Amino acid sequence: MFELLGDKMFGCECFCWHKHTDHQYPLPQPQPFFLPSPIPEWPLGQGFGTGKINLGELEVVKITEFERVWSCSLLRGKAEGVTFYKPVGIPDGFFCLGYYCQPNDQLLRGYVLVARERVASSTEVYCDYDSDTDFPALRKPVNYSLIWSTDCGSGCGFFWLPNPPLGYKAMGILVTDTPDEPDVEEVRCVREDLTESCEIMDTILATDANTFQVWNTRPCRRGMFCKGVSVGTFFCCTYFVSENQELEIACLKNLDPSLHAMPNLDQIHALIKHYGATVFFHPNEDCMPSSVQWFFKNGALLYKDGKVNGEPIDYLGSNLPSGGTNDGAFWIDLPRDDNARKNVRNGNLESAELYVHVKPALGGTFTDIVMWIFCPFNGPANLKIGLMNIQMNKIGQHVGDWEHFTLRISNFTGELWQVYFSQHSGGEWVDAFNLEFIEGNKPIVYSSKHGHASFPHPGIYLQGSDKLGIGIRNDTARSKYFVDSSTRYQIVAAEYLGVVVTEPCWLQYMREWGPTIVYDSRSELDKIISLLPLFVRFSVENIFDLFPTELYGEEGPTGPKEKDNWVGDERS
Fold it and tell me: ∠104-108-111 over CA atoms, to 5°?
């Protein structure tokens, strides 16, 4: 039987299990998360969905089964606590690289990678390291360093950093419930040339005064062409760590140039059919999306600097300037005729489709299915100031609005792992267990009224100061207006597949999809400020200074290929 005891050290109130009598007040343990529906059998391919991924000299498997080692509760923070886990069910021949940790107030859904050394065939070529080395890819640590402990005797938490041999890197931290140093057989270190540096991400646990902290980690360099592979382990220490500081543990590196675990075209279509999100627009939305072709066909004009009149754009965009950079020489605008202009501003939901860019993520261990949606017009902003809601006349309007969300798929299993929701000032990754699903494993994306930012749930999202209740409102709600991306989509790019996907002409247009607009917004905002009580005017003025540039003047937005996330990772 077990007894729950408490201990205080460095301001952390921790609980640990002792084998004595019946336990009291046990910490709630997370339950496993499963997608609403079973994962289908994917079409045949190479390495996608096979459960193992070749990284060059190493082969890795994702472990999602864990045995709880130790839990800690921060009573002062009124948190449910965190739990540290040891991976179990490791296949024969594979070795643990580190342990896993997560908060108790979310469903259990994490992973760690385990690895084994593989023998390359005579035809395989690896890059970025000396393939003639005689040193093995994996080695046992020399010993361990005790990072931190609760110092409350047998059964409490002790955190151990593997000390790697010279030329090797530790991949993660170990946790024990006794003060005995772990066996060196428990974990493996990886040869340094097979690793990349990693950085801290989300804070999982922090004691009072931050004397001990625990974070998730991720590769420092992320994007379509980056090779860093997240191991799924955590980092902890008793000193200050900045966001971009190189850590004492590392990530893996994918040195297999074939990216064999990425899905082929048939598998991409199957993934979109299974996971394609339904995008709901606000019931009062009057700036609907459309297809790019509808936009061109219904009178969109291409303007060139120095010329007064614009020229019609070919249905396929074949007369748009291709390549180059956004040099201000060209831009697109709505038709000049008032009726045609109003028609295009309203959009055309029936023609709308999602434009899909498929790319490797985290060294090819995940696939990012980036879904772009086009709206011919972005409507005016809605300001919230305390209890007041003020619909602006023109501020926030612009022609040509490109927004996106991203499905992140595990290449080990084909499981939907996260969804990224792009928003005006950034965006957020949302784990699958925090998503809403509408049919099987298809998530819901809510598009905000007029601004078309993406959100995971209905409601009002404030871009500004939540504390003061001042900012731009992003209203989302379910309605009869929606686009089902599982059926209405077009794959426009997947560079890793070579010539398999033909990119449309309009995707090569690197200039602005709308004219530059300058608003007399300050006078309109000053009128609003003058109506407010004196004690809030100063705060409101400061908040307005933090508003995005589209409130004061808007350069026409560029297309998908000009966005940072086309090659890079999402902003988070």
Answer: 120
Task: Look at residues 418, 428, 58 and name the one whose alpha carbon lies nearest to residue 231.
Answer: 58
Q: In what helix (H) or strand (E) does residue 296 lie, and over which residues does it extend?
A: helix 292-297
**Contact 301/310 with Cβ under 8 angstroms?**
yes
Secondary structure, 3-state, 511-568: CECCCCEECCHHHHHHHHHHCCCHHHHHHHHHHHHCCCHHHCEECCCECHHHCHHHCE
pTM above 0.85, yes or no: yes
Nearest Cα to Cα of residue 153 among 24, 11, 3, 25: 3
Query: What pLDDT score does 30 carry?
Result: 85
Per-position b or e across 271-305, b if 16+ CB within 10 A of its CB: bbebbbbbbbbbeebebbbbbbbbbbbbbbbbbee
Please determine, for residue 403, whether its predicted confidence score (pLDDT) is greater than 80: yes
How far apart CA 531 and CA 541 sit, in angstroms, is: 13
213 beta partners: 206, 237
Of the candidates 419, 410, 486, the one whose C-alpha atom is nearest the C-alpha of residue 446 is 419
Q: Which residues contact 523 (CB under 8 A, 6 or more apart)?
A: none
Residue 380's SS3 state is coil
